[in-house]
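FORM 7B: Structural annotation worksheet

SECTION A. Query
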Amino acid sequence: MDISKKQVLAKYNAWWETGAVPKDKVGVERSELLGRALQELDTDLIKIIFGIRRSGKTFLVHQVINRLLENGTKPKNILYVTLDSFEIQQGFKSLLEIVQDYCSEDGEKKFVFIDEVQYFDKWEIQLKNIYDSMKGKINLYVTGSSSFIIKTKKADPLLGRNVELHVFPLSFKEFIQLKKPDLKLKSVGEFKRDYTELSYSINAITNVLDSYLSSSGYPEVAITGVRNEQQYFELYLSDIFIKDIARFWEIKDMPALETTAKFALQNVGQRFSYTKIANALNQNTQAIMNYVGHLSSCQMIRFVEYYSKSYANRAKKEKKVYAIDHGFCNFLFKQQNQGCIVENVVYVHLLRNAKPLAPGIFYWKNKYEVDFVIEDPEGEITPIEVKYQNAINPEDYKGLYSFFKHFKKVKYGIMVTKDRFELHQTKDGGTIQLVPLWLFLLSFWPEK
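SECTION B. Predicted structure
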């Protein structure tokens, strides 16, 4: 590698000289997330770290580097490069050039971290070539802000060559660990045992929960703090539109894309119709479908389908829309309906903890509605209703009653409440577990 190129790379690899990662690059450690990233160090597979912009992927990469250095890895054997850098884009023609030039110097095994990999054309083919030609010689991590990195056909060349790590905004548990580190949380994933174990801290936990619900899971907002949250999210939206959508798809009408995004984010938890949105916004239905697809690809919004054993019925029914973080609701639209925010928080918690190979997260409705229906890989179905309110009335059970009646094999459901923890038995032998939101977020699938 010539001197000028080495000098460019050295700007991003301060540890080559100092032996340490700059503190401002490490950020706040998310212990469980870091643990999952470190678990993959022993495999030669490409580690793909993906998630929405500003969720903490670059911090995570530097935390892995920091841990490698602490464990004795030679600083010169760790390379970090970010492909959204103009210097990198101008100085190197391909990923293979960067990696081969770097790895050829002494023959020792290298740890290579490539940030924002989608900024190089045909990145998926290049990664395949690197993997096939240098397997065993490097340990490769890559990040990307958009889910299409691994969800579209562009990732097909990497099938069987990668493992994935999805980075979400902060969970409630992480929020507690960072906001109140002295509060020790021990949960085993069983409501009754965890309620007993954590009940001594209920006041402290619910105080932090109130803060979480009124804030955001984005680390920069939740932990560091910003002066103007509404302005932050407005600029953040623009960042996503320009860097994660317009750069990769031809967008003829950016104001229409922005309006579509805000319409979706303002209606979290509501059923979603392309035609209705097109009519409301005076737009072409196909254009709305394209915009919504782009917004979903970059992880800003997500959809929940109607639950049915028939795929045809699922396709015909309207979907429900949710945001990847409730901060959009709090700061862009000053959402006053806390129930909508709580429902969104519950959805993201389910999404974050979804079991591998599970069919998905759904909703169900006939005369009454059930907010969420989850099905595990073994086919076990659990309906979940969100009732974050001061009192639970007889009417509030009707959605779950109706679900039990329709799906006769299902005998257990969950109602997420504000503060009630009890078992409710139905006349036909069903059980509804009432569980406070704080306990649900700490105890329902706490570990994968």
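SECTION C. Observations
The chain has 22 helices and 14 strands. The longest strand covers residues 138-144.

SECTION D. Sign-off
Analyst initials: ____
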